[in-house]
Specification:
The chain has 541 residues and is mainly alpha-helical. The chain has 20 helices and 5 strands. Its main location: membrane.
């Protein structure tokens, strides 16, 4: 394909006409594909820049990555004036592989905004853990480019490619701490589980293509109900296998086993990235294949996703409940299990869309919840990034007395945990949970709403336990310098409690900015929670 001249000056900014071998002109809308393209270009620029920068200036790569992500995010603004599409069939202009509609733009905003916060959070980690800067920022930007491409994908091939572009760099990011056994083990578990999910998904996609003769989602939706009766079993199997593949990507139980070890072994900002962007990628893909490609099979995927939602939230919250401070459990492992439980809540509206009268509203509930979760979860990981500089073990008990040492960090983390629990003053968390409840009730999934209510109560215990720990007195030190366990009496000659000298460590500036940004956003949205639902209501498919 070769570029041809375009007639209008305005068109030269946003489109380039290409001529196929058959002489058919096809327009490529460069403005529509700007968000993922700019992220990818920024990744390549950072990789090349790494070759010429001396070691003392490698920190500039992080700021270059942040600038690239900010520019990619700003490129969404010109797309707000209406739907745009490109890479369309020449014989059917309304059947396209890339569509920039409201759903796409909201998810791209979530993905690129989350990647920007992850980049801010990563600056201190790249420096302190001596990670290879050029490789780290290139991999992060590449993964963000794939994640931004996925919500715009409207054919199964592009969907799978975007999913893998988002996932493959993430494997390397998890295992980038060279010589660290836990990091290597986490990367291997993540890689093997993801490869298995991709294999299952590709098998399902091939079955769907064999039954319909098309890869475009809208064409598949039209062709599946009218498929040859002899291909019904093949088509049903393809639908089920495709959903199973996405269940792996969303960490839905029983396909969640890779999550805890991966989060604990990965660099903390990478764990934060996976907990938010990984979920956004998986759930946006799941929404596209269910609501757009397989609406005729809602009697299959609706009940299946409802069962997965109930199982996922229960497994995640019960496992998180077992992470206790007195047992020296990891704070990141608790956040990992909490992430699994939150994935169950995110599945509820998608399941409800299978039987709801207005499925678009149910999808809007998922997007609204995802936006809330992204803000407060990144905030919690930002505070965790600071505490990890104080304690390498990063136990839950290391947060004891955080308010006495770093009151603003403790108040911020307490607020984020209350948002995740759905309690005031975290009104945005309560509002998001109410919208999910309403989606389940409106779809006559009362049993699922009851299961969710039970799980919300279970989650209250470990969120409130962690919050209360922030304001308890710090542990005293034995004369040997070791922390005295809770309940052990102090010796008679003990004076005022001593604190670990590491508590004087200053918070890195990018971490402070991340905490401040997420805190301000969380407070603003708690003051006007309707803004989130109004913003997400534009995700009509």
């Amino acid at each position: 394909m070769t570029a041809t001249a375009v007639g209008a000056a305005a068109d030269t900014v946003t489109t380039v006409d290409t001529v196929t071998a058959a002489g058919v002109v096809q327009s490529v809308d460069w403005l529509a594909i700007a968000p993922p393209t700019l992220a990818a270009v920024a990744g390549l620029a950072v990789l090349v820049l790494d070759l010429f920068l001396p070691e003392a200036r490698k920190h500039l790569l992080g700021w270059a990555a942040c600038a690239g992500l900010a520019l990619a995010g700003l490129s969404i603004l010109p797309l707000l004036d209406g739907d745009r599409s490109t890479f369309c069939l020449t014989t059917q202009p309304d059947v396209c592989s890339y569509v920039a509609d409201p759903f796409t733009l909201v998810i791209q905003f979530l993905v690129l905004g989350g990647a920007f916060l992850a980049a801010l959070l990563s600056m201190a980690s790249v420096r302190d853990e001596r990670l290879p800067a050029g490789e780290f920022w290139f991999l992060l930007l590449s993964s963000a480019a794939g994640a931004a491409l996925l919500p715009a994908s409207r054919d199964l091939a592009t969907l799978v490619v975007a999913l893998e572009v988002a996932s493959l760099p993430a494997f390397a990011l998890v295992g980038l701490r060279r010589g660290d056994r836990m990091s290597s083990e986490a990367a291997l578990k993540f890689f093997l589980s993801s490869v298995a999910a991709t294999a299952v998904m590709l098998l399902g996609v091939s079955f769907v293509y064999a039954a319909t003769g098309s890869m475009h989602l809208v064409t598949v939706a039209d062709a599946l109900p009218g498929a040859d009766a002899r291909l019904e079993t093949l088509a049903t199997t393809g639908v089920v296998l495709t959903l199973v593949g996405f269940a792996f990507k969303t960490a839905a139980a029983p396909f969640h086993f890779w999550v805890p070890d991966t989060y604990v072994g990965a660099p903390l900002p990478v764990a934060a990235y996976l907990s938010v962007i990984g979920k956004a990628v998986g759930f946006s893909g799941l929404i596209l294949v269910t609501v757009i490609a397989f609406p005729g099979y809602d009697h299959i995927w609706g009940p299946a996703l409802a069962v997965l939602a109930a199982l996922t939230m229960t497994v995640g919250n019960v496992a998180a409940l077992r992470q206790r401070p007195e047992r020296e459990h990891s704070a990141v492992r608790l956040l990992a299990w909490s992430s699994v439980g939150q994935a169950g809540y995110l599945l509820v509206p998608i399941a409800a869309a299978g039987s709801a009268d207005r499925p678009a509203e149910a999808i809007g509930s998922t997007v609204a919840y995802a936006l809330m979760y992204a803000v407060v979860n990144f905030g919690a990981f930002a505070v965790a990034a600071h505490v990890r500089t104080v304690s390498a073990a990063h136990r839950i008990d290391d947060y004891r007395g955080l308010y006495a040492r770093h009151p603003l960090d403790a108040l911020a983390l307490g607020f984020f945990l209350l948002c995740l629990a759905g309690l005031p003053p975290g009104v945005i968390g309560l509002f998001a949970k109410v919208t999910v409840f309403r989606a389940a009730v409106d779809a006559d999934l009362g049993w699922l709403a009851v299961v969710m209510a039970v799980n919300v109560v279970i989650a209250l215990y470990y969120y409130l336990q962690w919050t209360a720990l922030l304001f308890r007195p710090s542990e005293e030190l034995r004369p040997s310098g070791e922390l005295r366990p809770s309940g052990e009496p102090a010796p008679a000659h003990a004076t005022a409690p001593a604190t670990a000298p590491a508590t004087a460590v200053r918070v890195a500036a990018p971490v402070t900015v991340t905490i401040a940004l997420t805190g301000v956003l969380g407070i603003a949205l708690s003051g006007a929670p309707q803004l989130v639902l109004r913003f997400a209501s534009g995700t009509l498919l």
